[in-house]
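does this look right to u?? zinc ion version
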Amino acid sequence: MVPTGHGHSLAMAAAAKGALVSSRWTHAICEMCWIKRAGSRAAHRLERPELERCCGCGFATMSGIYQRADPESMWCGGYHALAGDQAD
Ligand SMILES: [Zn+2]
Ligand SMILES: [Zn+2]
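got this back:
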């Protein structure tokens, strides 16, 4: 498979590391950011959302929506100071 856009060798290296990486690529986002990014696509939501910081805009949200995205394209830069994200 050929990645679109600029060649992301980083992404390839990250993929090789497997599960460790997924948390950096999985972002909590608010509903506004979801709509901006995904349009009318249905979001997967947690059944019991917790208060999180939106990785798209930095504001608190309880949307329960998560999206995989390049950390460099997100407000968070891939940094999540949450439990489960300490495996670095
Ligand atoms: Zn994030
Ligand atoms: Zn947001």
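The two ends are 27 Å apart (CA to CA). idk if thats expected tbh
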